[in-house]
Here is the input.
Amino acid sequence: MKKVINFTKLRFIMFAVSAVIIIAGLGGTFSQGGLNLGIDFQSGLSQRVQIAPVAMEVSYLGEEEARFNILNGEVSIDVFTTDGKTESKDYLLSDYATAADLMKAMMEVPSLTVNLVDAAAPAEKILSLAYLVDMRDGSAIVNYSNIGASSVVGIEDVRNVLSSVGDPQVQMVGNDEAQEFLIRLEDDGTSNFSKTAADKIFKLLEAEYGSGTVIVKQSDYVGPRFSADLGQSVIMLVSLALALILVYIWIRFELAYAVSAIIALAHDVAILIGFIGLTRMEVSTATVAAVLTIVGYSLNDTIVVFDRIRENRGLMRDADLKTIINTSITQSLSRTLITSVTTLLAVTAIYVFASGQIKDFALAMIVGVIVGTYSSIFIASPVFLGWVNSRRKKKLEKDNIKYGSTIAKKNGIAEADAEASEQNGLKVVEIPTAERKLKKKKKKK
Here is the structure.
C-alpha cells in the first residue's frame, strides 16, 4: 500500500504562508498606486513607439507607382509600370555588411534615390517597417536598432520629454536595444483628445531625438464610457462565474465542499492579482482571460481531490476525516503533478517564444498553475476539514446542552456513522437516542 503523506499536519503553516503572500502582494500593489490598468480598462490614449537612429532615406522620382517595404530581414521594392507590369527587387539584409553596401545594391532600381544618414550602420540591424510605404506620398525612413550603450534611451528620459502633456505612464517593451516604449495618457476630457495627444507625443519625441527617429507602431484610444462598462462587465462575469460554481458544487457534492472550493479559488485569484500588481503587468483582456482560465484549472484539480475524498468517506468508514483526506490527496497526487507539469511545459514555451499580451498571458498562467496546484493540496482540503469539524463541534455542543454530555457524544458518533453510510450509498435509518429508549421503557411498564 502506498505510504500516506500527512498533508493536513501542515495546514496551519500553509494558511500562514498564503496569508503573508496575499497581504504582501495586495499591499505592494496598493502602495504602487493600484493595478496597472491597460487601455481596455482606463480611458485614454495608448501608443507603442520605437526610438531608433536613421540609417537612410529612400525616395522614388519616377512617374510610376513605387512601394517600399522591409519585413523579416528583407527589403522589397515594387515598381508598377504604365503597361500594367510589376518590377520587383528584393534584398536580404544578411547579404550586406553596412547601410552603404545596401544602398549600392538598391541603386540599380531606376529613379530610386537613397540619402545615407549613417553609412556605417550595420545592415542586419535595420528594422522592419511598421507599414508598407507608397513612395508617391513621400520618402521611406529606414531605421536601425540601437547598438551603442551611450545612446540608449531610458523610461525616465521619455517621461521627462513628455512631462508637458500631463502625467504619462511609460513602460519599456522588450530589451533596451529595441528601444520600444508603451506610452499611456489618461483622457483629460478635451475635444479631439486622441489626435491632439498623439500629435503632441510624436512632435515632442522627434524634437528631442531627431527627425525620423520616432516610429509609431500602434496607437489605440478608448473612451471613458467603454472602459467603465468593460470594467463592470468583468467584475459581474467573474462574480457570476463564482456563484454558479458554488451552486454546482453544492448540488453535486454538499455545501462544505462548495464553500471550501470557493475559498480556494478566492485564494488563487488573490495571489495572482497580487503578482500582477507587484510586477506592474498590464491588466488587459489577456490577463483577465488568464485569471478566468486559472479559476477553471484550479477548480478542476480541486474537484478531483474532493471526489476522491467523498468516495473514501464511504470506503474508509472506520477512519477519521484527517486520514481520509490525507489518503485521498496522496492517491490523487501523481495525477495532479503530471497534469500541472504538462501544462507548465506548454505555457512556458509560449512565454519564451511569444511577445506582447500573449507573453503576459503565459506568465500569469505559469504563476496560476503553480498556485492552483498548491491550493488544491494545502488549502481546499484543509478548509473542508476545518468546516466539517467546526459543524460537528457545534452539533455536539448543542446536543450537550440539550441532552447531556454522554448522549451528545453518542449522537455525534451516530451522526458520523449515518454520514458515512450516505456516502456509501446505503439507506440511513434514524437511530433513537438513549433518552428516547428510556421513555419507551417507562411507557411499557
